[in-house]
Amino acid sequence: MAKFENYLALEASAGSGKTFNLAVRFIELVLKGEPINEILALTFTKKAAAEMKTRIVEKFQNLLLLQDGSLKPSAELEQICADLGLSADEVLAAQQRLLPKFLSESLNVFTFDAFFAKALRIAALIQALKTMKGFWVCSRRRF
Fold it and tell me: What single DSSP character describes residue 120?
């Protein structure tokens, strides 16, 4: 299996394939067994966040495309196979196994503003709870 970094930042002009690459990366992390609720994708606008979330779900569901009456691998499937060093059959088996969980989880795709606002609310709540007698705060972080 190919090694890949834990973090990825894409900076490119419009129409250069950023959403494609981010969707592929998100799907690869899911297929590698990363907990869905621990994968975070950030962008600048609400429209871009909504589009990214929609694309990730669509791409995960449609790794095979119906073309000319038969199923063909999508560009995403080909990229995932190359990146992870897996066969299409291995990726599709993992996809089928993970699909119900993937569809039932909430994807962490936010704008930067929404993410930092959420982080501040959580930090404020934790700080308030720490000052209240009889409360304790679990240190495990989840967004």
Answer: H
Locate tokens 């621990």: which residue?
A: 38
CA pair distance 1, 87, nearest whole angstrom? 11
In a domain, 79, yes or no: yes
Q: Is 9 contained in some domain?
A: no
Is this prediction's pTM over 0.90?
Answer: no
Q: Residue 14 to residues 5, 31, 69, 103, 123: CA-CA distances in angstroms?
A: 24, 28, 33, 29, 35
Pairwise CA distance, residues 110 & 49, whole Å: 6
Number of structural domains, the chain? 1
Q: What single-letter amino acid sits at 49?
A: A
Which ranges constitute the DSSP H helices of 34-84? 46-61, 75-84
Query: Quick one: tokens of 57?
Result: 């779900």
pLDDT in tens, 1-21: 445 566 667 777 777 777 888
